[in-house]
Design a protein that fits this description.
The chain is built from 15 helices and 5 strands. The chain is mainly alpha-helical. The N terminus and C terminus are likely disordered. A hairpin with a 5-residue loop joins strand 1 and strand 2. A 3-stranded antiparallel β-sheet has the order 1-2-3. Strands 4-5 form a two-stranded antiparallel sheet. Among the domains are: 36 residues, no CATH class; 126 residues, no CATH class. The relative contact order is 0.05. The radius of gyration is 32 Å and the shape is elongated.
Length: 350
C-alpha cells in the first residue's frame, strides 16, 4: 500500500467514524443509512442548533455573526454543558475580528469558569498566539480609536500563562519567549532576570533550550559592564556564567567562541584590579593593595600584568605569592582594608 493511499484510507476512516464530512462545495454531510447525506441546516431554538450556528459562522469567516450567536447562546443556556466550547468560540471570533484584547478577556473568563474543561488547553494556546502577536508588533486598541503598543500586554499574558499552567510545555515556552523578547530588544537587565527565572522554574528543561538560556543570560550580563572605572560585578558574574556554560556545554562553547570572550573578560578584570591596587597603594592602604595585586596574579599568572604585580608586591614587602593561573573570581577585599575614600561614582583612579 502506497503512503498516499494509506493516508486516504486513514482519513476516510476518521471521517466515517465521526459521521461528518464536507462536500465538494464545503457543505457539511453526515453518514446516514450507509451513505453520506447533507446535514440539516442548523436552526435556532436548541442548544445543539445554536452551537452549530456559531461554528457555521466561523467556518464562513463571519466572526461578527459568530460572536452574536455565541453571546445569545450564553444568555439562553446558562447551565448547558456546551457553554465552555461556546465561550472558546466567542474568543476565537474576537481574534478573527482582530480584537485581541477582547479575545484574551473571553479566554480568561472561559478558563476561570471551566478550570478542567476540554477546551482549556486550546484557550491557553490562543492566548499564547495573542501574546506572540503583540510582541511582534501588533497594536492594541485603546478607547476603540487609538492604536498603542501591545508589548507590555503580551508579556503580561505570557507570565499569566506560566502561572495558570505551571510545569507544562507551553508555560516553559511562554517564559522563554519573554526572556528572548528582552534579549532581542537589548533590554539586558530584564533579559538576565527573565532567563534566570526560566532556568529556576524549569531546571530540567530540554538541553538545547537550557543551553540557549544560559548563553544568552551570560551575554546579557556581560553587556551590563560599563567599563574599568565602574562596578565590576556584571563582569565577574558574566565570567562565572561563561565558565559554567563552558563546563556544561564544551562543544557549544567552542562554537560560540566563548574561550575568546573569557580571555577578554580576564584581561578587563586584570586591568581593573591592577588600577585598584595602584589606587590603594597611593592612598596608603597596603593590605587592600596587596589583595588586588594577588587578584591580578590569580586571573592569569603568566601574563605581563602578573609579573608587574609580583614586582609591586615585593616593593610592599608582601610574602611570596603562589601562582594559581585560574580564571575563577575571588572574594572581595576585607572591609577594613577598603575604608579609604575611593573616588566618587565607583570610579577607580589609575
Amino acid at each position: 500500500m502506497t503512503s498516499k493511499y494509506r493516508w486516504f484510507v486513514i482519513l476516510f476512516a476518521l471521517a466515517t467514524a465521526s459521521g461528518v464530512s464536507l462536500g465538494a462545495e464545503g457543505t457539511e454531510h453526515v453518514w446516514k443509512n450507509g451513505k453520506w447525506a447533507p446535514a440539516a441546516k442548523p436552526v435556532e431554538g436548541t442548544p445543539q442548533g445554536e452551537l452549530a450556528l456559531v461554528r457555521m459562522h466561523l467556518d464562513n469567516e463571519n466572526p461578527k455573526s459568530a460572536l452574536k450567536a455565541a453571546e445569545k447562546f450564553l444568555i439562553n443556556y446558562p447551565r448547558d454543558s456546551r457553554r465552555e466550547e461556546v465561550m472558546m468560540l466567542a474568543g476565537q471570533a474576537e481574534m478573527d475580528r482582530g480584537h485581541y484584547d477582547a479575545a484574551c478577556d473571553k479566554f480568561n473568563l472561559q478558563m476561570d469558569q471551566h478550570r478542567n474543561g476540554a477546551f482549556y488547553d486550546r484557550a491557553v494556546q490562543r492566548q499564547y498566539e495573542i501574546a506572540d502577536a503583540f510582541l511582534k508588533g501588533r497594536k492594541r486598541r485603546a478607547a476603540w480609536v487609538f492604536r498603542v503598543s501591545g508589548v507590555d500586554r503580551g508579556i503580561e499574558i505570557l507570565n499569566s500563562i506560566a502561572d495558570r499552567v505551571p510545569g507544562t510545555v507551553i508555560a516553559e515556552k511562554a517564559l522563554l519567549r519573554v526572556a528572548d523578547h528582552h534579549y532581542d530588544n537589548k533590554q539586558v537587565v530584564p533579559a538576565v532576570e527573565a532567563y534566570d527565572h526560566y532556568m529556576k522554574t524549569f531546571p530540567k528543561a530540554p538541553r538545547k533550550r537550557t543551553a540557549h538560556a544560559m548563553l544568552r543570560a551570560a551575554r546579557a550580563r556581560y553587556a551590563q559592564y560599563r567599563g574599568e572605572k565602574f562596578d565590576d560585578t556584571p563582569l565577574t558574574d558574566a565570567q562565572e556564567r561563561f565558565l559554567d556554560y563552558s563546563d556544561r556545554y564544551p562543544e557549544e562553547a567552542n562554537k560560540a567562541n566563548i574561550p575568546m570572550v573569557l580571555s577578554q573578560i580576564r584581561n578587563a578584570l586584570i586591568q581593573r584590579y591592577f588600577s585598584a591596587a595602584k589606587f590603594y597603594t597611593r592612598v596608603g592602604r597596603k593590605t587592600a593593595a596587596i589583595f588586588y595585586y594577588k587578584k591580578v596574579i590569580a586571573q592569569d599568572s603568566k601574563s605581563h600584568w602578573a609579573r608587574r604585580a609580583e614586582t609591586e608586591l615585593l616593593k610592599l614587602g608582601a610574602a611570596k605569592v603562589a601562582k594559581t593561573n585560574t580564571s575563577a573570581t575571588t572574594k572581595p577585599a576585607p572591609k577594613a582594608d577598603t575604608s579609604a575614600k575611593a573616588p566618587k561614582n565607583g570610579k577607580v583612579e589609575k
